[in-house]
Amino acid sequence: MITVALAKGRLAQKSIELLEKCGLKLDELKVETRKLVLFDESGEYKFVFVKPSDVPTYIERGVADFGVVGKDTLLEADRDIYEMLDLKFGKCRMCVCGYPDSLKKAGGILRVGTKYEKITREYFGVQGKTVDIIKLNGSVELAPVMGLSDVIVDIVESGKTLEANGLTVLEEVCSCSARLVVNRVSLKTKKGLLELLETIKENID
Ligand code: PRP
Fold first, then answer.
1. What is the DSSP letter of 130?
2. In this predicted model, what pLDDT tens digit does every residue of 158-190 receive, in sequence order?
3. C-alpha 142 – ligand 1 centre gap (Å)
4. Do 2-90+177-203 and 92-176 agree at the fold level?
5. What is the pLDDT of residue 108?
6. Candidates 3.20.20.70, 3.40.109.10, 3.40.190.10, 3.40.640.10; correct CATH number of 92-176?
7. Ligand 1 centroid – CA 95 distance (Å)
8. 100 alpha carbon, distance to own chain's centre
9. Fold adopted by 2-90+177-203
10. Which of 11, 114, 140, 142 to mutate to test ligand 1, by most ligand atoms within 8 A of the CB atom?
């Protein structure tokens, strides 16, 4: 059996659609349920639904053989797993955002609100800037609005959250999209995994 870890939320639906295109029968996954472990029709594939940031953990530990996760989460997690395919959906940008003059106006050490501490430290680190990173877990756009931080580092997809809160993109850190990640041992030992990865590759839009 092959176990697949999917990130609950934005990427799960697209991941299921892609796997169906590859011939998997996943009707059970589309029914509203609180179950966290589900199977395809043949019983060959087991699916676990986890928080996005936990996908790399499940893959690294070998509890799941492969999974789908955003490049943003992957960069932040920095785990010993193979990033095999760019699935080309879930496209977004990791950006420094704030008010138009936030970077210029901030005196002293720049205060940065973010869910992505590692990405933020590295981004400003290569510029030789020391920043005060304020770790947040959601609604990050609120930080500059409330004066908790000067800027934020966060993902921008449609840009609507920024716009609705009077903020704007100041610098782009990197672009992100959904990635297929694989456990190192599974790649060598799981029968059928390489074949499935080939089929997935052929079906990426
Ligand atoms: C993400 C991100 C932004 C928003 C960007 O938050 O942190 O807030 O989406 O999307 P947009 O550019 O299309 O508006 P998410 O919805 O994951 O919720 P969160 O605030 O709980 O992190």
1. -
2. 999 999 999 999 999 999 999 999 999 999 999
3. 11
4. yes
5. 84
6. 3.40.190.10
7. 12
8. 27
9. D-Maltodextrin-Binding Protein; domain 2 (3.40.190)
10. 140
Tokens standing for 64? 């799941």
**What is the Cβ-side half-sphere exposure of residue 81, based on CA atoms within 13 angstroms?**
32
Q: Which atom of ligand 1 is nearest to the CA of 160?
A: 14
Dig out the tokens for 78 from the structure: 């920095």
Residue 148 in tokens? 């908790």
Task: Please tell me whether the overall predicted TM-score, pTM, comes out greater than 0.90 for this model.
Answer: yes
Pair of tokens at residue 121: 């430290």
The two beta strands, 151-156 and 92-98, are: antiparallel
- Token pair of 176 as six digits: 């992100």
SS3 category, 77: helix
At position 146, the amino acid (one-letter code) is M
The CA 185 to ligand 1 mean position distance, Å, reads: 34
Which protein residues are within 6 Å of ligand 1, measured from CB?
A: 138-141, 154-161
